[in-house]
Write a structure and sequence with these properties.
Blueprint lengths: L2 E6 L6 E5 L5 E7 L13 E2 L2 E2 L16 E4 L7 E6 L12 E5 L5 E7 L2 E7 L13 E6 L5 E5 L5 E3 L7 E3 L12 E5 L10 E5 L6 E7 L1 E7 L2 E6 L3 E8 L6 E4 L17 E9 L8 E10 L3
Antiparallel strand pairs: 1-2, 2-3, 3-6, 4-5, 7-8, 8-9, 9-10, 11-12, 12-13, 14-23, 15-16, 16-21, 17-20, 17-22, 18-19, 22-23
């Protein structure tokens, strides 16, 4: 009816059409690369709805959209986007992104076998500054990274990974208090090379070591909880806690403990701190909580 806009997958040649409806449905249609002559239904169908008293709505010649939503209830006009084929956000690879002119929502899905799968409204995909209400245009650069522009403010945004580390798992009491907490300073930008791991509240005057791995668990271990599953990588050498039970170490991207522990843009690793604590009795060692860190270019 009113395509707005067309997106072509640079890898497969598949075509995605954001089709603004008459009054009831907003839709996104999928045209496989190399296939021509598909009939998307208008004026007999609006999305999957029969329209205008048409008597041919069930005719198999029509190709229904792979995604649709109600006009008015969810949005007002679909703005077709593009398929992500960049390298900075591996979790988004192969997904189609679209928006609506009247909302700030970005929706993603991946077409598998002609069916939209893993349809997600990306609640956390918001601009670092400004507003992207009235998103109007989508584009990509030569590397497959995606840009989107809004209408009212005349701004262009680049879609980038959310690289803020988050703590998870639980800590346990030790000889210095209620538990050791892992943290960081700097950024998770690999090119900036300024990421420091920090710990506070560990046993005072004791040695400990940061370690990391790709998986998460939560199982009793020593006098605390192990929160990073095997395989893990130790960040040597061990460090000595100060009088407050604090310590830090800078992550060296150029010298990983092993090649399997190489930290690259787009990867996510889980970190924890292990430390001796003979004064507490028990097993003689304890751990901090843990932190999941996604790394950016």
């Amino acid at each position: 009816r009113n395509p707005f806009r067309l997106g072509i997958d640079q890898l497969t040649g598949d075509v995605y059409v954001g089709d603004v409806g008459q009054s009831g449905k907003e839709e996104s249609s999928f045209l496989p690369g190399g296939v021509s002559g598909l009939n998307l239904g208008w004026p007999c169908k609006e999305g999957t709805n029969c329209f205008g008293g048409c008597t041919m709505c069930n005719d198999p010649m029509f190709t229904d959209p792979v995604f649709e939503y109600e006009n008015g209830a969810v949005g007002c006009a679909v703005m077709g986007g593009t398929v992500y084929r960049g390298s900075a956000i591996p979790s988004l690879y192969g997904y189609y992104l679209l928006s609506d002119f009247c909302t700030e929502d970005v929706t993603t899905f991946k077409v598998v076998g002609g069916v939209a799968t893993d349809i997600t409204v990306q609640a956390n995909m918001t601009p670092a500054s400004g507003s992207w209400n009235n998103l109007l245009a989508w584009g990509r650069d030569a590397s497959g990274e995606i840009y989107v522009g809004n209408y009212n403010a005349g701004q262009v945004f680049k879609i980038v990974a959310d690289c803020a580390p988050e703590n998870y798992c639980q800590t346990a009491p030790n000889s210095n208090g209620s538990g050791a907490i892992i943290g960081y300073s700097g950024s998770t930008s690999v090119s900036a090379d300024d990421f420091f791991l920090e710990v506070c509240g560990a046993a005072t005057g004791q040695f400990g070591i940061f370690y990391y791995g790709p998986g998460q668990i939560e199982v009793p271990f020593g006098d605390g909880f192990r929160c990073v599953s095997s395989p893990t990588h130790r960040i040597n050498p061990p460090i000595l806690m100060d009088g407050a039970g604090s310590g830090s170490v800078q992550l060296d991207y150029s010298s990983p403990p092993s090649q399997s522990g190489l930290i690259t843009p787009g990867s996510t690793w889980n970190f924890q701190f292990w430390f001796r604590d003979n004064a507490a009795g028990g097993a003689g060692f304890n751990l901090s909580d843990a932190m999941s860190a996604p790394f950016c270019p």
